[in-house]
Amino acid sequence: MEPLGMSTVLLLTCLSCLLLSAIWKSGARQKGKMPPGPTPLPIIGNALQLKTHHLDQVLQKMSEKYGPVFTLYFGMAPAVVLHGYEAIKEALLDRGNEFASRGKMHLIEKTNRGKGIIFSNGETWKQLRRFALTTLRNFGMGKKSIEERIHEEAQYLLEQFRNTKQQPFDPHYLFSCATSNVICSIVFGKRYDYKDKKFQAMMNLMNENFEIFNSAWAQFANMFPTLMEWIPGPHHQIVSGSLRSEEFVLEEAKEHRATLDPNSPRDFIDCFFIKMDQEKHNEASEFTMENLITCSLDLFGAGTETTSTTLRYGLLILQKYPEIEEKVQEEIDRVVGRSRMPGMADRGQMPYTDAVLHEIQRFVSLVPLGVPHTVDKDTPFRGYVIPKGTTIVPVLSSVLHDSKEFPNPTEFDPGHFLNKDGTFRKSDYFVPFSAGKRICAGEGLARMELFLFLTSILQNFKLKPLTDPKDIDIMPRLSSLSNVPQPYKFCLVPC
């Protein structure tokens, strides 16, 4: 018998793959009567059809073919994608309880282990989120007291800006320090000097982890966890980085425990210890040292990177559109003047500035795919049945860039949030913090920070780009888990 030729072997291999794919896809789809979607390949799923950058744009094209609800395979794991306002509203708002659970991500599972607020589920999530919201409110979130903390930090930030002496600088680190210090005042009961070595190390560590999580390495590690365990790469640094972050919080927690006064809690950590002591005889209590550390890191991370990135992106956009910057400064001068700092009470009288802030968040679409959800049981949805445990991907950018709600959605235009008479226009499509049961717990704090920091900066400085405004690139450098602006330097000129 003659040996098979290479062409015959390749043909048989291709036919086998196609057959396996058909059988695998048919079995998976029939099991749950799942939504349609592109044909997956065995093992790798739809990986070849997904770009690691601008994934939201790939999903936009797929939705045009398969509709607002479709199925993708990230490796061998199916995910149901929700695209557009109606589908996301129906799932996260109208049927919020059914879609409230958090989907799994391999790298997150390795570090958070189902603990904390953001990536936990069940009783862990319910109890810790309720406790966190109550504690944040008690320490001033949405109140005058937290506004005063932001004002204090804004003064430190402005002083750092003045020290640049109108020379070019990268604002990344300073914005991270400022936003981090606001949440530090709530979680740890103190702020850190921007030159504090321990604080600097934590800031650098957080930035490194954020970059890795947003990289192609992390995406592949989440899709092919077993394979990527054996392949060298920066994704392996996540666990060691997480452990170093935990050590930072643990050191703070030990100091708090040693000086704790149950009758006078100073911050989130004190309140958590008090709750731990109250439930020390409850073996099923969620108030453990592990959850204290993870909750603190959740608040610390979420309260730093998202707001600082939005501010950094916002200043880049305003450099490209100096006429918009000028209008904001005119409104600040008219409503606030120069004798005092802008306050939250001013926001209602500053519709143009409010519109610009909303447009920055809409245009940036900081977390374009949202954070994944899942269903805890087989769930009927729009004529399909989504099997228990299936990942749900709500594409938030599809709502924020809806062309009917926001004409010319890829253009930066504050008019998207202004009525014809110049008053502020609200929109149900404004979902940068997601929607429903899992909406960001720190939304109120983030909105205050964005308004107070941005207006304080523009009250005191004019932005001076290093290039012609028309040449400034405002497209994201990284666009997978998060849209991150191009690195840049600029100058600040005192008004």
Automatic annotation (TrEMBL):
Catalytic activity, EC: 1.14.14.1
EC category: oxidoreductase
A Pfam family reported for this protein in Swiss-Prot or TrEMBL: p450
Membrane topology qualifier: Peripheral membrane protein
Ribosomal protein keyword on record: no
Binding site for heme: 440
Cofactor: heme
One annotated Gene Ontology cellular component of this protein: endoplasmic reticulum membrane
Keyword set includes Heme: yes
Lineage: superkingdom: Eukaryota
UniProt GO BP: epoxygenase P450 pathway; xenobiotic metabolic process
Protein location: Endoplasmic reticulum membrane; Microsome membrane
Signal sequence segment: 1-28
Molecular function (Gene Ontology), one example: heme binding
InterPro entries per UniProt: Cyt_P450, Cyt_P450_CS, Cyt_P450_E_grp-I, Cyt_P450_E_grp-I_CYP2A-like, Cyt_P450_sf, Cytochrome_P450_fam2
Keyword entries, A-Z: Endoplasmic reticulum, Heme, Iron, Membrane, Metal-binding, Microsome, Monooxygenase, Oxidoreductase, Signal
Similarity field: Belongs to the cytochrome P450 family.
PANTHER family linked to this entry: CYTOCHROME P450 2E1, CYTOCHROME P450 508A4-RELATED
Name recorded for this polypeptide: unspecific monooxygenase
Organism: Anolis carolinensis
